[in-house]
Design a protein that fits this description.
Length: 223
């Protein structure tokens, strides 16, 4: 059976209480902390950097999954590795040399992945599958939490699942954007195994109730 992982996006957490927020969401059952880095250049928003990753690292034992929405990419990678990131993903169109950036992440001791926006073709994976540990399919255009799920992403998840299965490698397939209790099952049935959810979790008073409801939906998936 597939191991499904819930990765709350701290983009929707209360930044004034971030340490407490990440402790609470892990206690509520989060498997991964998803950490959104936006630069007001590659995407039209500005969030958090390595200092904040370093600050939350002692508060959680689970992996920190850093999603870089920045351009250029390479300069900031060693800083995130030193700050305690476990997984670092980036957008292929934001890197001049995708293979080099993937290798840089791995040489820094982290798992590496590529992120695909709704309009980004999947062919960027063609010659680098051997250096990929995660594929992240965006089901919204990047930049903001609280957007609606773009159903077309399900087709991409199916394609990515097929590529992963054909590679025979152990690659996480993550989906990010508009994930809620009522659509997580469809994303899992299309092939995703790791689910980023920001507003769905952090907008509710009881994080465990939401995560448990998501897991109950995932338990219905037949793979
Ligand atoms: O990367 C992101 C936006 O660029 C966020 O992780 C994502 O949108 C999660 O937020 P929500 O679950 O509220 O859609």
């Amino acid at each position: 059976m597939t191991t499904f992982r819930i990765a709350p996006s701290i983009l929707s957490a209360d930044f004034a209480r971030l340490g407490e927020e990440v402790r609470n969401v892990v206690a509520a059952g989060a498997d991964i902390i998803h950490f959104d880095v936006m630069d007001n250049h590659y995407v039209p928003n500005l969030t958090i950097g390595p200092l904040v990753c370093h600050a939350i690292r002692p508060h959680v034992q689970v992996p920190i999954d850093v999603h870089l929405m920045v351009k250029p990419v390479d300069r900031i990678i060693p800083d995130f590795a030193k700050a305690g990131a476990n997984i670092i993903t980036f957008h292929p169109e934001a890197s001049e040399h995708i293979d080099r950036t993937l290798q840089l992440i791995r040489d820094s001791g982290c798992k590496a992945g590529l992120v695909f926006n709704p309009g980004t073709p999947m062919h960027y994976l063609d010659y680098v599958m051997d250096k990929i540990d995660m594929i992240l399919i965006m089901s919204v255009n990047p930049g903001f939490g609280g957007q609606s799920f773009i159903a077309e992403a399900l087709k991409k998840i199916t394609i990515a699942r097929r590529m992963i299965d054909e590679s025979g490698r152990d690659i996480l397939l993550e989906v990010d954007g508009g994930i809620k209790v009522d659509n997580i099952r469809a994303a899992a049935e299309a092939g995703a195994d790791t689910f980023v959810a920001g507003s769905a979790i952090f907008s509710q008073p009881d994080y465990k109730e939401v995560i448990d409801a998501m897991r109950a939906e995932l338990a219905k998936v037949g793979r």
